[in-house]
Design goal:
Blueprint lengths: L1 E5 L3 H12 L3 E5 L8 H7 L3 E3 L2 H4 L4 E4 L6 H6 L8 E4 L4 E2 L6 E2 L14
Parallel strand pairs: 1-2, 1-4, 2-3, 4-5
Antiparallel strand pairs: 6-7
Length: 116
C-alpha cells in the first residue's frame, strides 16, 4: 500500500519508518516543495519519496500530521476525500511546544472538523 503524509515532522517520520518496515511505500509532503524533504527521504531509505501534498493526499491511506493551527491551510486546496483512510495525527491545541492552549471543538471529535 502507498501511504501519504501531509506533514513531515516527527510524527510523520516515525510513522513512515514503521510503514516502510512493514513493506509499504510512503509519500511525504509538507507546506514547502518536495526538495525540502530530501534529507528526510534519504534517511528513511528505499520506499520513501517526497511529493507535493496533492499527491500525498491522493493515496489510499493518508496521515495528517501538522500542527492544529495549520490544519485549515494544509487541507484548503485539496479535493474531497474519495473512500480513503485518513489517520488524524493532530491534537486539538493552539500554539507551539510549551505554550499550548486547548481548542474548543464543542461536541465534535477533532476529525469531524477537518473536511468533508
Amino acid at each position: 500500500m502507498e501511504i501519504g503524509t501531509i506533514g513531515a515532522g516527527a510524527l510523520a517520520q516515525v510513522f513512515a519508518k514503521r510503514a516502510l518496515k512493514a513493506g509499504h511505500k510512503v509519500t511525504l509532503s509538507n507546506d514547502r516543495d518536495p526538495e525540502s524533504l530530501r534529507e528526510i527521504v534519504n534517511q528513511l531509505g528505499p520506499g520513501a519519496i517526497a511529493v507535493p501534498k496533492e499527491v500525498a493526499a491522493s493515496c489510499e491511506m493518508v496521515l495528517l500530521a501538522v500542527p492544529w493551527d495549520n490544519v485549515p491551510a494544509a487541507l484548503a486546496s485539496l479535493p474531497g476525500w474519495k473512500n480513503q483512510i485518513l489517520i488524524d495525527g493532530t491534537n486539538p491545541f493552539h500554539g507551539k511546544a510549551g505554550k499550548f492552549t486547548p481548542v474548543d471543538v464543542g461536541n465534535l471529535s477533532t476529525s469531524n472538523s477537518l473536511r468533508p
